[in-house]
Each structure stands twice: as structure tokens, then as C-alpha cells.
Write a structure and sequence with these properties.
Elements (H helix, E strand, L loop, with lengths): L2 H9 L3 E6 L10 E6 L6 E2 L2 H4 L2 E5 L6 H6 L2 E4 L12 H16 L8 E6 L5 H12 L4 H11 L7 H9 L6
Parallel strand pairs: 2-6, 4-5, 4-6
Antiparallel strand pairs: 1-2, 1-3
């Protein structure tokens, strides 16, 4: 196999980076990841991992096989532009609901939550940031975790601002 063929296959295999480990916040029972369908940053996402994961798709680029393999799949597709996404309240509500389920010991929680977009930088950063805030982190800590895991992420400063405006109470 030529080097360029290998590079093409690696680039088009979805990858994600962990931004929060299960147990890092009291009561959080799932690992939280963010990544991209066309990213080579982070860990490759396997079918085995997906079977134990909830996936929030913020761009609509994930391969069909990955969608079918996930334990739960939710699409909230929006553009990576410097404005509030039209479905922001739906995204905020979904992440708040998932956080409640992840922290409630009476609810079934996934081993992993994957927040995905095309390259794993801005849209997934907003979605992952909202989930981290709903789990109890402040907006600054959420952004810090995201940018440490995926350098260059959340370059869309409007998305960073939306995390501060989301109104989640810190635990």
C-alpha cells in the first residue's frame, strides 16, 4: 500500500480526544470525547467503542456504519459560523438531558459520549463544552479542557461566548 493510500484511510477514519474521564467529576459515569469524522487527531473510533457510546453529531459527516453502530445517535447539525446556531436551545437542552442521565444512578449511562463534527474543532467543541458545563464545569474550565485535548479547537469565539451564556450552574 502506498503511503498516500494509508494517509487517506487514516484521515477519513473518525478520531476523537477524551476531554473528561469518568469519575473526574463526582457522579459522572461516562468518558466524554470530542472529535471529527475527517480528523486524524486523537484515538480512532472503533465499532466496539461505538456500541458502548452515545454520539452527538454536530456536522452530519460521520460514516453511515458508525451511525448504525452507536448505542444512541443524535444529530444536531449546524454551521461553523460566528453566530448562534438556530437550534442552540435544542443543543443546550439535549446536553442538559444527557448530563442528567449520565449523573443519575437510576438511569443507564453509556461508557462513552462522543461529540463529533467534521474536523473535531469548533462545532464539536461547542457541543462538548455545553455537555461539560451541564456536568458541572465552569465555561473557562470546559474551554481549557477542550483546547488542551485538541489544540486549535474553539477558534470560533462566538461558540466560546455561547458557553458563558448557556446558564448552567456549577456543581
Amino acid at each position: 500500500m502506498a503511503a498516500s493510500e494509508w494517509d487517506d484511510r487514516r484521515i477519513f477514519q473518525p478520531h476523537a480526544s477524551r476531554v473528561l474521564g469518568a469519575g473526574e467529576i463526582d457522579g459522572v459515569r461516562s468518558h466524554v470525547w470530542m472529535g471529527g469524522a475527517h480528523s486524524d487527531l486523537g484515538e480512532p473510533i472503533s465499532g466496539e467503542m461505538l456500541a458502548r457510546s452515545w454520539v452527538l453529531d454536530c456536522a452530519g459527516y460521520m460514516p453511515e456504519a458508525h451511525r448504525g453502530a452507536a448505542a444512541r445517535w443524535e444529530a444536531q447539525v449546524f454551521a461553523d459560523v460566528a453566530r448562534r446556531p438556530e437550534q442552540f436551545e435544542l443543543l443546550r437542552s439535549l446536553t442538559k438531558d444527557w448530563a442528567r442521565q449520565i449523573m443519575d444512578p437510576r438511569e443507564e449511562a453509556p461508557e462513552h459520549v462522543l461529540v463529533m463534527c467534521q474536523y473535531g474543532m469548533n462545532r464539536s467543541g461547542l457541543g462538548a463544552g455545553l455537555l461539560l458545563c451541564a456536568l458541572g464545569l465552569g465555561p473557562g474550565e470546559a474551554v481549557s479542557r477542550i483546547t488542551r485535548a485538541r489544540p486549535g479547537a474553539l477558534a470560533n469565539y462566538r461558540f466560546r461566548q455561547l458557553l458563558s451564556e448557556a446558564g448552567f450552574a456549577r456543581r
